[in-house]
Fold this protein.
Amino acid sequence: MGRDSGSDGRPGFRRRDHSVAPWIRTRLRTAPGAAVALALLVMATACLAAAFPRAVERYEDAGLRQAVVDATAPRTSLQVSAPQPGNYIPQSERETALRPESMRKSYERVLNVVERPLAVDSAQSVYGVRNINNLEAAETWLPMPSGLPAQMSLAAQSGLAEHSRPSAGRLPRAKEPVTAGTREVEAAVTTETARRLNIKVGSVIHVPGVQRAPLAVRVTGIVVPRDPEGAYWTTQPLLRTPSLIRPPTQGGEPEAYWLGALLLSPDAAPVLLGTPGEPARYWLLTPDPAALTAHELSRLGSVVASLESGPGLVKVRESTDADTGVSTDLDEVLASYAELRSGVRPLVSVAAFGTGAVAVVVLLMAGRLTADRRRTELALLRARGASLRGLTRRLLTETAVVALPAGALGLAGALLVVPYGRASYAVGAALAVTLLACAALPLRALAAHRVVGVHGAREDLASVRPSRRRTIAELTLLVLASAAVLALRGRGTSGTSDEALDSGTSGDQLVAMAPVLIGVVAALVLVRLYPLPLRWLARPAGRMRGAIGHLSLARAGRTSVSTVLPLLALLTALTTAAFGGSVLAGVADARDRAAVLNLGADARVEAEGALPAALPERVRSAPGVREVTPLSIAYEAKPGAGVESVPLAGVDPEGYARLAGRTGLGAFPADELKASPVGGAAKSGTDSPSPSGADGSARAGGSGSAKTPLPALASSAVADRYGTHPFSLRLSDGSDVTVRITLVRDLTPALPGTDFLIVDRAGLSTIAARPTTLLVTGDQVSGGALRKAVAAGTGADAGATARADVRLRSEERARYVDSPLQSGAERVYAVAVAAGSGYAVLALLLALVRAAPERAALLARLRTMGLTRSQGRRLLVLEALPQALLAAVGGVLTGWAAVRLLAPGIDLTSIALATPGGAPPTGTAALHTDPASLFLPALTVLLLATGIAAGQAWWTGRRGSVRELRAGDSR
């Protein structure tokens, strides 16, 4: 057995070093509570960090797929089309090119051209031959609404048997090879086509031929689509449902004719060459929404562009025909989704950065507090010869034994809670959290114990002066925060749709970190200013009777510099919570406002004609209804002799003024809209047939002089056009009314939009004054009860409400949450803000728990000097109050400043007011401060800090003082 140097460097036998494992076991047994707390913290943080990217990916993918599904197959399908083979080709080859075998081979080659990530749904994709020009049918038994013969479109499309079932007869087939000269072929029609065009099994329809006799098409079956809303039938709706075509006419009576589709067997496609319909080949490729992912949006757009006019189109032409073209609106759908995502993603990034920053601070603070608690132990080890590398390695191993399993459990929990999404980002996020937790304690110990020493200098805020490095770092953060705020105010959070489609994101990370940087800078500034008010208050407190005030201020000023991290966590969390709460409140307010702009009240009952006279009272008696405002709306009121129309609403001034003031839509004094007692300016064109005056105004009815115009409330656009001079309006019932604009408002409850006129109903004719709309207000209007009341009042079925349309503000509000992208982003944002607030509370608890043994010892010593229990509670509360008050006030001010500074660059319209079909939203959504989000978290921090201090004093007073007074105990 050879001799070698031992582990201590002296000659001796080689032996294994068993010191690491006993060290770890000893430390874990000595402080099991701290180990369990660290494990829980790492597990929760790793779970949140791993779940976040998967949750974002889930709602982004769901939003993309929903956008593609909502756009319908006619827009999203890739429509590959080629003309008929040229006449210079032999007829037999032309016919062969249209037969199913050739079409299927071309279809398979085209499928191979489509590259990932664009996936084709083969079950809904089809190919076939159809005529471009419609063919007139010679049969007179077909319906002819205006005497024009019906026209037919012949289509030989694949997959008819798989996508339909026979309702009568059988599917068409070709008994022998079909050529361009075949005299008769078989076809099928859908049930809808058969019903509207009076087609039955056995019917024969003749269409024109080219240099041959007319082609006879015998209907052998009537089919029912298995999935009428599937891409097979919706890509070409004519195959399923005939259309009534109204061609443009030069005056005279409008004409119309029916256009239907005859579904031929694919084997009968060559017969179309013998018709004047210009047959064309087509391959309809339907994308599979389930295979689309948002993270591949840029590549997806590139693939579509390549197929439309790029290398992909060249390959498609090589696989089909030199004149083949590809058309689709899928690129527009992708661009629309990218624009919506570009407005949503930066807001979620703000919440992610805020919560992530607070979580990082909490992990660092946990490591620093542990290092501070074990300062004497680690200093003693260094004094007894422990190397800095060995000490760091032991602390790293000790922490890793706890953090690594906890991080793995957090990752597993995230994968179970959010089972959708790529695992790589989740693993990376959980690994980053685990590594940070492992490194926090060793790095802090490495920095604190570089120099061997048992006793260190005081490290409180009143004595320690910031170093040059810290000053430079703080100035750097200040510059970064200023740059982020300026960039966000100038550029905003959302870029163009092209930028979003190309890069998948808008704005850079610096912009998204703007609220966090503001909170960090504010925390550093407050830490620098914190000792000043304590010094100012300490002198007058020292001259007061009693030692509690002076002692509490002195101890608050002696707080360790480790207070920087808790204050940083609190201010960052409070800023993020204020910003996030303001975003969520702004989204909710924008939707409420948009719903009110569209409806004008909590509910709207509207009909095309006049409503029953007793309906307002019946609606007023419905549960939750407080007031009903009847309106008489004429959308086609024509000023003077012009052809333009202006929407006119007749109202009851008193009730309508209350409604306008309550909704905030153009409040006005009711007296200024009331008609003059002698000014009933309406004249019925039916009841009083006398002509109008030369000035164009209506003459008096039975109530007053026609020369007194009705006062009117108008929009700015209408007021600019017609001014303040009286002018006449002709209503749809033939009556005339003279109005004069006396009030101008931008908005009004009765009519949305920028053109409207509001007058007193009392000045309208009897027919024009009948209510057509009811605006219903109430605290909790029941939709079911309101619809029942309207149905009973109009005589319609309660489930249908055929004569009157009932819309509720809650339903209108829900319409703006059109995409899973919006709802998912809101949920993730709310969870992120809640998690950030939780981490802030945890940071506060860690700071208080760290100081708990020292405070308990202080109270024990002071009780031996005569300190009462009530004085002890006041001492601890007053000692904790300056820091808590600093965090609360600083959080409120920082949150308010962040919202005010960043509001010009934040546009909430995308996340708040997206509408179905990409229609322009009603109004805009701007960021504004939410008082609840500003003050509630700050008050919670203040109450929690003082409550814990009071609770600790109460609990310490109930215990004995022996343990706290033991000599040498460093707790």
